[in-house]
Structures are given as C-alpha cells and as structure tokens.
Amino acid sequence: MKDLPAVLLTVSLSAPAALWAGDKDAPPPLTDEHWNSAHTLSFKSPAGWKVTSTPGDVELTEGRGDGVIFRIYRRRGGLGLDSMHVECMLLRLAGDMDTKPGASYEYDFNGSEISGHKALDSAFVVEYDKPVDGERKWRQRNLTLVSDDESVCLITYAPNPVFKKSKAVRKLLTSLVESVKWP
Q: Strands (DSSP E) along the chain, which ranges?
C-alpha cells in the first residue's frame, strides 16, 4: 500500500490531458474533409468552417472558423526548402505596409521529415497596424514540406492572446496540421 501514491502519480501523469482539462479544453471535432485544388492532399476541419481554394501553379487553400485561420500554400515541384519556408513566412494577414517590422520568434527552423517531405517548422508573433478580425497580434506557425513533386506550407494563424490562454485553440491548430493527408 505504501506504493499506492507512486502508482497514482504515474497513472495521473500518463492520462490524456483532456481527462484533466474537461470539455472546455477540447477542440471541436474535425468532421469535414476538404481537398486542395490539385487534389494532391486533403485536410479536415470542424463543421461550419468556410473553406476556399484558388487553383493554379501557386495554390492557396484557406479555412476559417472558430476564430482561427488555416492556410495550405502549394507549388508544383520541389523548391528549395529554405526558400519556400521564407516565402511562406511572409504570407501574412495584411500587406507589408500594414505590418509592424520584425516578428517575435517562438522557435525557428527545426528540420525533420514528414510523409516523405523534408520539413522546416517555425512559429512567431506578427503585429499588424490595424486589427485583423479584431486582433492586432497574431501567432503564425509555418510548417514547410518539400518533396521532389511539390512544395507545401501549412500555416496556422491565431490571435496571440487567444493562443496563449486557450488549450482548445492550441489543440485545434495542431489537429488541423495533423489532419493533412496525401493520397
């Protein structure tokens, strides 16, 4: 019996965070499936999200809902990983003239491989001169994936104060990125 506290501690640490956090920290379920214009990849979103897609050599698929934005930026062919990553980092919610110079970086250029693509990942906060959807500071995460056939950026945007305070929003953004699949 003297080992019971140690066993309870081990069990509690291994339990899913949602059990302790309650429903308020659970993101909405990803129920709707969407494809990019070229039908080379799909992702899921919560019900009711507005998803638009722009076909072409440079494709942009955007989903909006629950106060956040998810973009998939895709180009045909394998571009340089660093070049594509920098290009995607500049995909902001407002133009250069409406964005404060610089960004506050959370992390940058963590390389790996995902689904046969070379990967770079970064996250930073951008401040806009005028509020975008009611907020001036937005956290932007860019996950850039490059293979021989295509170059893709998965970009999430969340109002920075909401991102900091809401586990549900952080889980939702992670779930959106993780929902991306190649056929």
A: 32-35, 42-45, 50-54, 58-65, 68-76, 104-107, 112-114, 117-132, 135-146, 150-159
32: exposed, middle or buried (Cβ count in 10 Å: 0-12, 13-18, 19+): middle
Q: Provide the 10 A C-beta neighbour count for residue 52.
A: 10
Q: Which domains does the chain have, with CATH numbers?
A: 22-178 (3.40.1000.10)
CA-CA distances (angstroms) from residue 26 to 13, 39, 67, 104, 138?
Answer: 18, 30, 15, 28, 21
Identify any residues that bridge with 76 across adjacent strands, giving them in sequence order. Answer: 150
pLDDT, tens digit, 9 for 90 and up, residues 53-94: 988 878 999 999 999 999 999 998 888 888 999 999 999 999
In this prediction the pTM is 0.83
